[in-house]
Write a structure and sequence with these properties.
- The complex is a heterodimer of chains A (316) and B (446).
- Chain A is α/β, with parallel strands linked by helices and 316 residues long.
- Chain A has 2 domains: 8-134 and 292-312, Rossmann fold, CATH 3.40.50.1370; 136-291, Rossmann fold (3-Layer(aba) Sandwich), CATH 3.40.50.
- Chain A contains 12 helices and 9 strands.
- A 5-stranded parallel β-sheet of chain A has the order 7-6-5-8-9. A 4-stranded parallel β-sheet of chain A has the order 2-1-3-4, sandwiched between helices.
- In chain A, strand 5 (162-166), helix 6 (173-184) and strand 6 form a beta-alpha-beta unit.
- In chain A, helix 1 crosses helix 12 (288-307) and helix 5 (136-150) packs across helix 12.
- Chain B has 446 residues and is α/β, with parallel strands linked by helices.
- Chain B folds into 2 domains: 6-62 and 385-405 and 420-441, Roll (Urease, subunit C, domain 1); 65-373, Metal-dependent hydrolases (TIM Barrel), CATH 3.20.20.
- Chain B has helices at 84-93, 112-125, 148-153, 171-180, 207-212, 219-236, 248-259, 270-274, 296-308, 343-352, 359-373, and strands at residues 6-13, 18-24, 27-32, 53-56, 61-64, 66-71, 96-101, 129-132, 160-161, 187-190, 203-204, 216-217, 240-242, 264-268, 313-314, 391-401, 420-430, 433-437, 440-441.
- In chain B, strands 1, 2, 3, 4, 5, 16, 17, 18 and 19 form a 9-stranded mixed β-sheet that branches. In chain B, strands 9-10-13-14-15 form a 5-stranded parallel β-sheet.
- In chain B, strand 7, helix 2 (112-125) and strand 8 (129-132) form a beta-alpha-beta unit.
- The longest helix of chain B is centred in the middle third of the chain and has 18 residues, at 219-236.
- Chain B starts with 5 loop residues before the first strand and ends in a 5-residue tail after the last strand.
- The chains are: A alpha/beta (316), B alpha/beta (446).
- The interface between A and B is medium-sized, with 30 and 24 residues.
Chain lengths: 316, 446
């Protein structure tokens, strides 16, 4: 693996499958009475969150602690966009504290890339979501979840599996990372949404695209619903939330058109009644809660692989 | 101001045959074949006296002093980024003898008082003539016309008006501005950017912007405004200048307007002739500029448009920014890049060395035409006997590696750092007085 995890495109198929198999081993730890491994004892992981995200932060925190790393949570209120401390100065502070890995969440696309490549820090940088760009560990945990359900937890298990990613692809870092990673793992991805929420040039992402959710649903092995953020509802991307739900929401009627083995996913937090109805979210097809559990295992695997092996200095 | 006499030996005017040029009393006093002027200076010496300072110009191209129609000097208001003095030093080093200073200062150059201040600062610095551009609307707010007539009548004699940085997007206001400037032969230089189509825009809208998650700045946002303004100009019979044309579609629209005989001129910036939006993949804001870097096809179209005259001029859009405004995440960074000291090298690299333009064409695009558009009488004249001695000596055979730290600008935001570019300015003469000699600054106001 490379020294940083900034984009799902940084991962080769071998890298990605190594994360998945490592996560599978680490996940079994969760069933033991003592959930802790000494793998990263003495290493420091900083959670640098410029954007509120309790879910992702505690997932990374739990992952690092289960590997015995020291964890520093650094909630930087506001970014240099709002004239707070600059990303650079924050990075220099962390460097001075001796961080081995910086897990960064930022509202600006590319902020983790800047952190990794501007010479501000020497530590490994893990992108925990940047603007409307990427969220590679979310894609890894989604792939891990798919792999357990559809791929028999074996390398190559997602080959030819069909996944629909539905909703606001334009603003979704989850969609970008998943489109990249799932295709790396051999799955066939279909991006579904209103034309206003599919990015310019999406036809060159290698994925199929569709404006018609009903036509796609019967063909897929998994449906990943994306959150529709409140500010988009005012942005004129679609006429009304109600119309959006009618055309692109997953409700009981649409769920009934899925194949028996098809699973339903959501990266959370959900807007129930908007992109997904409660009966679908709470149905037996839903693996939404399991995604959260898998998130810890996958992030343990990522931190372990980025930091655990780095003493051999053969990286990058 | 004392004026020394200079004899430029074996200079190639517009790339022609080696020629000796005599500069005396601030004007071109003689042009003769090599050796032809020696008789007038039997005692030529390099120490002054009654002789002429001799400048060996073998292999150097003599061009008329360059004129930039689009420079941000930042003074008043942002003297941490640039001042009139530092900006004009950079201009002189880039071969410019005149620059037009954009109005988006603080306070905005929307009154006679501010434009006269900038004009005076330019004269005091003495490296380069500074022609202030007046704001079209009060405070660049796009709400009501600034006192265009007062600026035109001021000592600064403003003829170019622009809200650059902002588009005069209100069609009625744009119409009125175009009409009003006819009274003093002014021109409205439009920053063509539909504001609604570019809300939050960060880079060229393309497949790459989608992948990078950076909000797109679509070509249509530029092209729609240019098309509208061409129609308005034709309708009211005025003069439109289009700033920093960046897309192939814009070139087509301007070409079509010219074919119809409408009074439209356009500029391209050096960076848009060389760099492409692929550079945004670095997320390094040194490449963040407005309008954004576009595709390779757009670059080709701009070069072709500049070659065939659709694009009348090269203008730098020299936009200095302090380090901290670029040393950050992309979205937080300021738009803009330096351009004065590298412009001629980029034009040589993209237009001359590619065979698209000869040196006469460079003189037209970087001196004669911008001076005509700006209605600047003392600049942009051919190098001939009797003309003001605004002359650049350029060594096309030299190469240099761009080092941001060497810039005369107060700012360091050049996108060309580390690049090897052809050509080097050896000397710049402003009305017969050197502002640059041996590639180095040579005094300001005498």
């Amino acid at each position: 693996m490379k020294r940083h995890l900034l984009s799902a495109a940084d991962l080769t198929r071998d890298d990605a499958e190594l994360v998945l198999t490592t996560a599978a081993e680490l996940r079994s730890l969760a069933d033991r009475p003592i959930k802790k491994l000494p793998a990263l004892r003495g290493r420091t992981v900083v959670n640098l969150f410029f954007e509120d995200s309790t879910r992702t932060r505690i997932s990374f925190e739990a992952a690092a602690k289960r590997l015995s790393a020291d964890v520093i949570n650094f909630a930087a209120k506001g970014s240099s966009l709002s004239k707070g401390e600059s990303l650079k100065d924050t990075a220099l502070t962390l460097e001075a504290m001796g961080a081995d890995a910086v897990v960064i969440r930022h509202s600006a696309s590319g902020a983790p890339h800047r952190l990794a490549h501007s010479g501000w820090v020497r530590s490994s940088v893990v992108n925990a979501g940047d603007g409307t760009h990427e969220h590679p560990t979310q894609a890894l945990l989604d792939a891990f979840t798919l792999w357990r359900h559809l791929g028999d937890s074996k390398p190559g298990g997602l080959e030819g599996r069909r996944v629909a990613i539905v909703g606001d692809v334009l603003h979704s870092r989850v969609a970008r990372s998943n489109a990249l990673l799932l295709q790396t793992l051999g799955a066939e991805v279909t991006l579904v949404g209103p034309p206003t929420l599919l990015p310019v040039g999406v036809e060159n992402w290698g994925a199929e695209t569709s404006y018609d959710l009903d036509a796609v649903l019967p063909k897929v092995d998994a449906v990943m619903m994306l959150r529709v953020q409140r500010e988009r509802m005012q942005g004129g991307f679609f006429p009304t939330p109600r119309e959006y739900s009618r055309r692109y929401g997953l409700d009981g009627r649409r769920m009934a058109t899925l194949q028996d083995h098809t699973i339903v996913m959501h990266p959370g937090p959900m807007v129930r009644g908007m992109e997904i109805t409660a009966d679908v979210a709470d149905s037996s097809r839903s693996v939404i809660v399991e995604q959260v559990t898998n998130g810890v295992a996958v992030r343990m695997a990522v931190l372990y692989l980025l930091l655990g092996g780095s003493e051999s200095e053969s990286n990058e | 101001m004392t004026s020394t006499t200079y004899l430029l030996k074996n200079a190639r005017i517009l790339g022609g045959e080696p020629t000796d040029i005599l500069i005396e009393g601030g004007v071109v006093a003689g042009i003769e074949p090599p050796g032809g002027l020696e008789a007038r200076f039997a005692r030529t010496s390099t120490s002054g006296g009654e002789g002429a300072e001799v400048i060996e110009a073998d292999g150097l191209i003599a061009l008329p002093g360059l004129v930039d129609l689009h420079t941000h000097l930042r003074e008043p208001g942002r003297e941490d980024a640039e001042t009139v003095e530092t900006g004009t030093r950079a201009a002189a080093l880039g071969g410019f003898t005149a620059v037009h200073a954009m109005a988006n200062t603080d306070p905005v150059a929307d009154t006679a008082g501010v434009v006269e201040q900038v004009w005076r600062l330019g004269r005091e610095a003495g490296y380069c003539d500074v022609y202030p551009i007046g704001a079209v609307t009060v405070g660049l707010k796009g709400e009501r016309l600034a006192e265009l007539g007062a600026m035109a009548d001021s000592a600064a004699r403003v003829r170019v008006f622009s809200d650059d940085g902002h588009c005069v997007s209100d069609p009625l206001l744009m119409r009125r501005a175009l009409e009003y400037v006819k009274a003093f032969d002014g021109v409205v230089a439009q920053h063509a950017q539909d504001p609604r189509l570019t809300e939050g825009a960060q880079m060229n809208e393309s497949e790459l912007s989608g992948r990078l998650g950076l909000a797109g700045w679509p070509a249509v946002a530029e092209e729609a405004i240019i098309a509208r303004d061409c129609l308005l100009t034709a309708h009211v019979g005025s003069r439109l200048h289009v700033c920093h044309v960046s897309t192939a579609g814009s070139v087509e629209i301007v070409r079509d307007a010219k074919r119809k005989g409408w009074n439209v001129t356009a500029e391209a910036c050096p960076h848009h002739l060389l760099l492409t939006d692929e550079l945004a993949a670095t997320y390094d804001p040194i490449y963040k500029v407005n309008p954004p870097l576009r595709s390779a096809a757009d670059v080709e179209a701009l070069r072709a448009g500049l070659a065939d005259g659709t694009i009348d001029i090269v203008a730098t859009d020299h936009a200095p920014h302090p380090h901290e405004d670029k040393d950050c995440e992309w979205a937080a960074a300021a738009f803009g890049m330096l351009g004065l000291e590298t412009a001629l090298s980029i034009v040589q690299h993209t237009m001359v060395d590619t065979g698209l333009l000869d040196w006469a064409g460079v003189a037209e695009r970087m001196s004669y035409a911008p001076a005509r558009i700006g209605r600047v009488a003392d600049h942009g004249q051919p190098i001939e006997v009797g003309a003001p001695a605004n002359i650049v000596l350029h060594d096309p055979a030299a190469t240099r590696t761009i080092d941001a730290a060497e810039s005369a600008s107060l700012s360091r935001n050049t996108p060309y750092a580390g690049m090897e570019l052809p050509g080097r300015i050896e000397a710049t003469f402003l009305r017969g007085r050197p502002t640059v000699l041996d590639g180095k600054l040579w005094g300001g106001t005498a």
